[in-house]
Amino acid sequence: MVGRFADRVALVTGAASGIGAASARRFAAEGARVALCDVDEAGLAAVAKEIDPTGERVLTARVDVAQMGEVQAFTDAAVARFARLDVVLNNAGIGAFGRSDEIDPAVWHRTFAVDVHSVFYGTRAALPHLRRAGGGAIVNTASVSGLRGDYGLSAYNAAKGAVVNYTRAAALECARDGIRVNAVCPGPIETALAGPLLRHAKVAPAYERAIPMGRVGRAEEVAAAAAFLASDDASYITGSMLVVDGGLLAATGQPDFYALLTR
User: Fold this and answer.
1) Which of 86, 154, 232, 260: CA 20 to 30 A from 181?
2) 2 domain-assigned
3) Is the Cβ–Cβ distance between 14 and 65 less than 8 Å?
4) How far is CA 231 from CA 26, 107, 154, 170, 210, in A?
5) Per the domain annotation, does 223 fall within a domain?
């Protein structure tokens, strides 16, 4: 697989940690020059140094992806630095907890700004450059929470559901331009954002029971899926949601009849 992104440029948002950082490492390991942004400048610097201490193959910048102008400026800067753009991973996101009658409307709007609007901004900024390159790939980080509902996560569910259907719509818009648009839909993944919840004394055993593989996922496992969708190995795949969840959504949600009736 080494070399799938040789001579290509990949832009990753939310690249300072978690899935974004793992994806940046994966793209770089497979030959890409990478443009990485986040609001966490220290985290970005650490990831960039790990990928390429010389800085020749890495561009970083502090970007608030909820601001269209900042996303546009960074995308243009990446092309100015590396002369092209081939892959965009719209990965930045935040969570939000609370029922509909409890959540602060400001939190609801901020969740949409970071999780949904940023995907539109990133796509809009990238399209002219991808067309100029003769095509390319956009991968959005959605979630299993965009495919099903969760208890207490209404804002996050709504936002990630929007990412899912926007991905489909953008895929239709871009297909004849040779630009593929897909999404990864992670389940519970051990990251700085989700880790405290996943390790909670009451939550961890529940996840172990609910996930057929018996464990939460690793950021590197999602990065591998994103790299596949961005690569030529997925050349006939667009408008798809690749679920990376250890089998979580394979179940209907009904009780485990076998365990209940045979043990």
Assistant:
1) 154
2) no
3) yes
4) 12, 35, 33, 18, 32
5) yes
Q: Work out the end-to-end distance of the chain between its first and last CA atoms, rounded to an integer number of angstroms.
A: 44
Q: To the nearest whole percent, how much of the chain has pLDDT over 90?
A: 88
A 10 A CB-CB count for 121 gives 23
Q: What are 109's two structure tokens?
A: 């709007």
Task: Give residue 180's identity as a one-letter amino acid code.
Answer: R
Q: How many folded domains does the chain comprise?
A: 1
Please list, in sequence order, all residues whose beta carbon lies within 8 angstroms of the beta carbon of residue 163, skipping any fewer than 6 positions away.
115, 116, 119, 140, 141, 142, 143, 146, 183
- Residue 119 in any domain: the answer is yes
Active-site positions read 156
2 band by pLDDT with thresholds 50, 70 and 90:
low
Domain that holds residue 169: 9-262
Partners of residue 255 on adjacent β-strands: none
Residue 181: enclosing H or E segment and its boundaries? strand 179-186
DSSP code of 214?
A: S
**Any domain includes 1:** no
Contact assessment for residue 127 and residue 174, using Cβ atoms and an 8 Å cutoff: yes
List, in sequence order, every residue forming a beta bridge with 70; answer none if it has no partner: none
Structure-token match 């102008």, residue found: 69
Take residue 4 and report the two structure tokens written for it.
């799938």
CATH number at residue 111: 3.40.50.720
* Residue 102, φ and ψ in degrees, nearest 5: -115, -30
pLDDT band of residue 255 (cuts 50, 70, 90) is confident
Give me the residue label for tokens 């650490």: 46
Predicted confidence (pLDDT) per residue in 47-75, tens digit: 999 999 999 999 999 999 999 999 999 99
H-run or E-run covering 139: strand 136-141
